[in-house]
Amino acid sequence: MIPNDLVQWLRPVGKERLFFFISHILYNLVLFIVAIIAAKIAGPEKWGLITLLMLVATYSGFLTLGINNGMGIALPLAIGNNNDSNIQKIKSTVFTALFISSIPIGISQFILIYYWQKPLTDWIILFGFTLSFQLLTYFKIQLRSYENFKLFTFAYFVQIISLSIGLLGLVQGCHYLVIVGLGNLMAGLFIWIKINEKPSFQFHKESLIQILKIGLPVMTAGIVGELLLSVDRILISIFLEDIQLGYYGFSSNFFKGVRIIGVAVSMMVLPRIVKSFAQQDYQQMLRYSVIQQ
């Protein structure tokens, strides 16, 4: 039996959420297939380096101080309060802060690549992939906050098409992170074109403080969680060779699918929880929390 709360929640925009859920699963399935093919083509040693670069990209997010994470809570909170002025300040401040944070990210990644004695092209690929991921995350958080799952679905399909075309590039020897990064950029550009209100380069101190107070603890918890999940790969990269990391990174792809469904549900429900809190409708907030669990 499906709980009545879940039925009532799905009924008004059931199709949009259903299509979003399907597109979320399809995208991650295609990404999984592309990763397996890329690992097979690259071989264990090269895939080990790619796995290491992906870890660096993940932990480089710490230098953003959690501004995307903070927007994920602050923006739906402002939307729930119907505070249009604060909404624009939050979006513009985060957009500006993302570009500013790209400077220390680029410098730190360059130092790591230099220390590992890897070619400069690896730094360009790593930095481009990291920036594309952060920007796409920014736009997707906006769509999630406004519960615009229709546009979110189309953005996923843009990524799916980009990855599918990228398979041809893999065969020709194109780098896996280049293919995924271009898919991120294409989806981000698609969202940019479709959204009505474009973010601007503005900086608001009050909004930044609010975002950091929320985002830094959330991001820290996420980083610690990811660190616990990837500590084995980090130890392998330190004490063993790229080829051992490549074997492990290849096999670990098969264990990531369990989290996909939970992430999709959280993305759909979290904005409702925050907006219910903003409207002081605590009963609804608890209902959505139950659905999320």
TrEMBL record:
Transmembrane segments: 18-41, 47-67, 94-117, 123-139, 151-170, 176-193, 214-240
The keyword Zinc appears for this protein: no
Major location category of this protein: membrane
InterPro entries: Poly_Biosynth_Transport
Pfam families listed in its UniProt record: Polysacc_synt_3
Keyword line: Cell membrane, Membrane, Transmembrane, Transmembrane helix
Membrane topology category: Multi-pass membrane protein
This protein's GO CC annotations: plasma membrane
Subcellular location: Cell membrane
Name this protein carries in UniProt: Polysaccharide biosynthesis protein C-terminal domain-containing protein
Organism: marine metagenome
